[in-house]
Amino acid sequence: MEAQVFLQGTIRERLQDLMKSSKINQAELATRIGCSESLLSRFISGKTDKLGDENIIRIASVFNVSTDFLLGETDLPDKLHYDISELGLSVQAARNLYTQKANPQVVSALLENPEFANTTYLIDSYLNDELARGFAAQNQLCATIANLVRGTPEVANQVKSFQTPVYQADHTAITESFMRAVKSVKAERGHDLNATRELTSQSVKKVFDELTKGQSKPKRKITAMQVANALAKSVSDLPGVDTETVKQLFLAMTGTVVNHAKATTNE
Prior knowledge:
Layout: H1 11-22, H2 26-33, H3 37-45, H4 53-63, H5 67-70, H6 84-87, H7 91-98, H8 104-112, H9 114-127, H10 130-148, H11 153-160, H12 168-189, H13 193-212, H14 224-234, H15 243-253, H16 260-266
Helix pairs in contact: 9-12, 10-11, 13-14, 14-15
């Protein structure tokens, strides 16, 4: 979503626009930033230029805009920097993002997705047992009724069958919501599977050409070592690829035990 852009303006014009759009009057704003209403009124009317840096910072916080926007340095009201306390993150959570123990690109994409916001509220509800309490009460009621009719086992068992795992609904809702968010992010990012298929096709052709030596089909029995050599050769032009590692990996996957002296001779 594109950020809203405002027309150029002075701090007084910006302040008046913000107060109007937020429906906050001078008295309320003065109370919220901790200054006198007369000082704020004289500043807005232009009778004084002295409002103080602290009051500017507090005003920016009230309207959730940057101080640069208030001062007319930018026409974008969105804040670019936030304190950890403003975001509601713990220090450890912020550290994990900063050190990239958590992938910041993925976190950003999820936080920008509307469905993920719903996921977080579902998780919060789950952690607070909001939905589970209802199912727990239902299960307790079923248990009580089953106990009252225990003389009729068939009825008692039928009543017990109405009991539900207390967290089942939470788990299902969270999983479905989270996957909708992930799929939405994936759809926005797209994929390059066609290029992957093309690369795989080219690699297979290289291996086949190496094994057949230009013939339409191999005229001899192909050994695991020959396939390993062909695979290694097919990727030898790729940067950073250790062809010997590729060869050994294939042999290990096929469970091939190689006599190294004989293999050297065959090569």
